[in-house]
Amino acid sequence: MNGDGYADLLIGLPLYDQTLTDEGHARLHLGRNPTITPSAAATIRGAETGAELGLAVAGAGDVNGDGYSDILVGAPLFDSGAADAGRTVFGYGNEGGNIDRLTRQYQADLVNPLATNCMDFADPDHFGIGHFARSPIQRNAVRMHWEVVFEGQAFSGSPITSGQGNTGVSAAAIDIGAGGTEIKQLIYKTPNFIRYKWRVRLEYDKAKLIDGQPFSRWFYGYASGYGDIGVLPVELLTIAAAEEGAVNRVSWATKSHRVQQFGVRGRTQHGWQHVRAHRHGSSGGQQPPDDRLRVLRR
Q: What pTM did the predictor assign?
C-alpha cells in the first residue's frame, strides 16, 4: 500500500476488544526485507459493541488509479441504521495522496520540463510527455498508452473516462521495478496547430492481473503555445465533485503554492462570476487542508 514494491499484510481480528466487547480490529503491516514490520503501520477499530470488524478483509485493487493498492475491511454486525446491517471500511493506499505528480510535460529533449504556457523554441514541432509508472500489484511490466488531440477535438469515449482509443502505445513492455519508473515519449505536433490536450494510461502485464484491472486510469496534461494564459501557480494533487442538496461541492488538494491567495471561477444560476475559495499563506511545498467550493447547479 505504500508503493515500495513489497507486498503488505492486512490482518482482521473480529473478536478484538479494544474498548468495546467484540468491536473488532484490523491491522496493516508493511512488507520489507527480510520480514514484515512488527508494528502495525495503520489500524482500524470497529467502534461499536459486537460489530466484529475484520471478519472479512480483502485487497480492493487500485480504485482511484494512483498506482497504490487499496483495501476493504468488513464489519458484518455493525448497526448502520438497522440492527446488524453491517458496513465496509475502505482504505486508500498511500493515505489517499500522491507523493509527487505522476504525469509531466517535457521539451523535445525529454529532459527539461516544459510549462503548459510555453513552447520548445529549439524544436517547436515536438514536445515530450512523461509518466511515473507504478503498479498496485508490486513489480510489473507495463506499456504506456497516450492519446493526443489538438484543441477543439474530443478525446475518445463517452464519457471520456471510458475511452479506449489512443494515438500511440509503447513499443515494448517496461519492467518498472519495485518502486516504479518514469516512461517518456516524444510527441509530434500536427502542422498548423499550437494547442494540444493529451492523456496517458498504463497497460499492465496480463499474466499478473490478480485484481482484474488491465489498465490504470487516464492521467491528463496540456501543451500550448507561447503566450497562452498558463495555469494556476499550484500543483494540483486531487479534485473531486459530489452532489450536495441544491449545490455541487467541488473539493481539491494542492501540494505547493507560490502566491498568498487565489480565486476560482464558478458557474452559478446567474452565469459566470468569481468566487473566493480560500485564503492561506505559502505552504512551502507542504500540502494544506483541502480547498472547497460550493457551486450552484444551473
A: 0.59
